Amino acid sequence: MSLRVIAGKAKGRKLKSVPGVTTRPVTDMVKESLFNILAGDVLDSHWWDLFGGTGAIGIEALSRGASLVRFSDLNRLPIEIIKENLSVTGFSNQAEVRRVDAFRWLASPTDHSFDFVYIAPPQYKEMWSQALILVDQNPGWLNEDAMVIVQIHPKEYQDITLDILKKFDERHYGSTMLMFYNQAEKE
What we know:
Number of domains: 1
Number of helices: 5
CATH class: Alpha Beta
Largest sheet: 7 strands, mixed
Strand order of the largest sheet: 5-4-3-6-7-9-8
Helix content: 25-40%
Radius of gyration: 15 Å
Number of strands: 9
Low-confidence stretches: none
Shape: globular
């Protein structure tokens, strides 16, 4: 599957893929749908592309006007690919790229709060629910009106108990499911 930026400043730029099956590439249709849902909320926003992979989601956000994206991944190759893709698209100065264990980082004291946290880990390892629970337990990562977006295969879905976050929407696109969470209103 060839990756590209589909809209904004870097529209049409080709992105390098990570060889093998360690990443979960997002199709143009899913990416387009996601950013249509988010619409103007992307402008000047801060993102954390938690399991960065190729960086396609965070780079799309930057292309559409996000001011900062943090990319993290545990493996060396995706980190190198993200850096190359940022260089090709001209967004290196608006990005922070770190090779870290996402779970350890989510459990640590917060150093920044985000408008969007995008969780799309390797499939079928229940990593999405672990990450979502850690964000729920450490809400300092989230700005007041923040949204957490989870991308999984529909077969991976299971109900999980959260204290702060609540699911307010989900969308299905073939073998991809997007779930949207925000912070529950305080009563």
